[in-house]
Amino acid sequence: MSPRPQAVTVIDLVRTFQPRKQPAVQALDGVRLDVDEGEVHGLLGPNGAGKTTLVKILTTVLLPTSGRAEILGHDVVHDAKAVRPLIGIVFGGERGLYTRLTARQNLEYWASLYRLPGAQIKARAAALLERVGLAEKADVKVETFSRGMKQRLHLARGLVAGAKVLFLDEPTTGMDPIASREFRTLISEIRAEGATILLATHDMVEAEVLCDRVTLIDHGRILATESPRSLGRLVSRFQRVDVEGADRELLDRVAALPGVESIVESDDGHRINVDGDEHVPVVLKVIVEAGVVDVRTSRPSLEEVYVGLIGDRGLEV
Amino acid sequence: MRGFRSGFRLQLSFFRNYPDSLIPLLTAPLFTVVFTMVLRHGGRGDLSGYAMIAPFYMSLWWFAIFNGGWVIQTERWEGTIEYLVAAPVGFVSVIVGRISTMLLAGAVAFGEVWVFGRYVLRTNVTIHHPYVFTASLVLTLIAMTTTSLFMANLFVLSRTAVTFSNSASYPVYLLGGILVPIALLPGWLQPATNIVFLSWSSKLLRGSLSAGPIQGAAFDLSMIALLAVVALGLATAFMSRILRHARSSGELALR
Question: Which residue of B has its CA nearest to A94?
Fold first, then answer.
């Protein structure tokens, strides 16, 4: 079977910033990354990890210090003109829109910058405003929009040219939970249409729900690239059985079963760490036969992995 | 060309949505009244044409500074510059398109002042040299556009751009011969006026309102064209370098 074509290829990418009268800052330190065509790839890391720097280099906004990056085979530095029609960009935050223009005016302007034929521009803008739920506000000035509405307009702008590779940098910042959920649905639809999506975020739920694979990045270095489910193995090789209402006698019996590595107290009861999936059915059987029904298996969540690999650094960036 | 058209249309949208950007169209008639009344009071009604040309230049300069000159910097403040740089159309063509609305704004300002002077103030001005007048007017609008493009780059580079844009007007009015003919300025100051295209322009526009022959009109027109081309060359060279530097230093979107 031939390998899937690469939408994004990053090889040994380095980016150093040199602020005036301050020491140099290494934002990216030898980053290597491959994103397959049609994949939704999460870029996960704390503030200052290098996510936005990487996205800006891939979108031709910023030049790398060294290394190479390609979008669908086109070099982002030497062939930037070929890259630009292929990509859509959604940077997070409230800026990036002409606030005294209406949503429709903004969108039609950006569509014209992507060389859409004149007749298509109006239809495309109207369809996108409908799609992101802003049709009723299409002719209202953006300065009156809430942060979430601006984010939706940002997303519409990112989609205006039918990009083959879509870069989303913290796209749900400022959205309420319902809008975030709708946004995820929208991303799933875009993915189904064949677009490749690189999603920079520190929203674990978003990454876990949307992404085929996730890359953890910190201090400009890639820590791991796996599917959200597989990443759990990096911080725990155990299958976990969480149980509530088990008495001491039952726990002792379970502890003696093959494959059971440890039993620890948890918030709701006890967590049984089992080494090897093949031992889990036996453990479950013993527990259920003892009359305990509140039992479930789990793997480490992405959030646990994140904290496990990157560490809990509080407000430090 | 697509970028130029998009930029041009965007700036027209701004004119519609930012009424304050058209303030010179409000102030120009007021200046026309002031200058005309001063001249009439001094018994020089024959110079009333000058009283209409000066407000036109003042409006044009205002558009050049505050609409054209701040174009790139406002893209940075709005946070739109990164999207613009990453768009398929050329950044420079969009900026040139936006600034080229100066041609339109300037023409409207001129027409407004002329109609106001003629029909409201009842000023009787005859254009004795219509070809020179038209050629110098068109070249003036073009030169102001390229000068504005040049300033747009300077404002990005300069940390004192706000101070400059607020205070540069009066020296330019003087060196451009807008308020006072160059010949009346101190001798030591006059050579400096040669590098200000407005000085050649104002001399020609005033001259075309006089009945006598205009000396050296072709040379004066050539000087306006030359200074327009120099400003354009410097502007495009600067813009490419600024963009490259900003992408390299990561300062593209800095406010």
Answer: B79
Q: What band does B223 get if pLDDT is binned at 50, 70 and 90?
A: very high
User: Which phi and psi (to 5°) does residue A13 adopt?
Assistant: -80, 130
List, run by run, the mean pLDDT of 10-residue segments along chain A (317 residues). Answer: 78 90 89 94 88 94 94 95 94 86 94 90 94 92 90 91 91 79 85 92 81 90 84 68 89 90 86 83 87 80 69 50
- Distances in Å between the alpha carbon of A30 and those of B20, B32, B109? 50, 65, 57
Give pLDDT, residue A73: 93
pLDDT at residue A317, rounded to an integer:
42
Q: Tell me how far apart the alpha carbons of residues B65 and A280 are, in angstroms, rounded to a whole number.
A: 74
Q: How confident is the model at residue A36, as a pLDDT?
A: 93
Instruction: Give Cα separations from A197 to A164, A213, B148 (angstroms).
Output: 9, 11, 40
Residue B211 at interface with chain A, using a CB cutoff of 8 Å = no
Q: How many CB atoms lie within 10 A of CB A25?
A: 14
Residue B198 belongs to some domain of the structure: yes
- Residue A47's identity, in one-letter code, is N
Q: Which residues of B touch A81 (CB under 8 A)?
A: 88
**B98 to chain A: which residues are within 8 Å by CB?**
none
Backbone angles phi, psi at A202, to 5 degrees: -125, 25
pLDDT tens-digit series, residues B13-36? 988 888 888 888 999 999 999 999
Chain B closest CA to A305's CA: distance in Å?
Answer: 32
Give A107 to chain B, closest Cα distance, Å: 11
Q: Which of B14, B84, B250 sits opposite A62 (nearest CB)?
A: B250
Mean local confidence (pLDDT), B53-69: 87
Nearest to A114 among B82, B88, B247 (CB): B88
Domain that holds residue B161: 2-249
| Residue B200, in any domain of the structure | yes
B249 interfacial to chain A (CB closer than 8 Å): yes
Q: What is the ipTM of this complex?
A: 0.81
Portion of chain B with pLDDT greater than 70, in percent: 97
Q: Quick check: A95 and B78 CB within 8 A?
A: yes
- Taking the Cβ of residue A56 and every Cβ of chain B, the question of whether any pair is shorter than 8 Å is answered with yes
For residue B106, is it within any domain?
A: yes
In a domain, B129, yes or no: yes
**Count of the separate structural domains present in chain B:** 1
Inter-chain Cβ pairs, chain A and chain B, closer than 8 A: 85
Instruction: Find the closest chain A residue to B247 by CA distance.
Output: A62
| pLDDT single digits (tens) B133-170 | 999 999 999 999 999 998 888 877 766 777 777 787 88
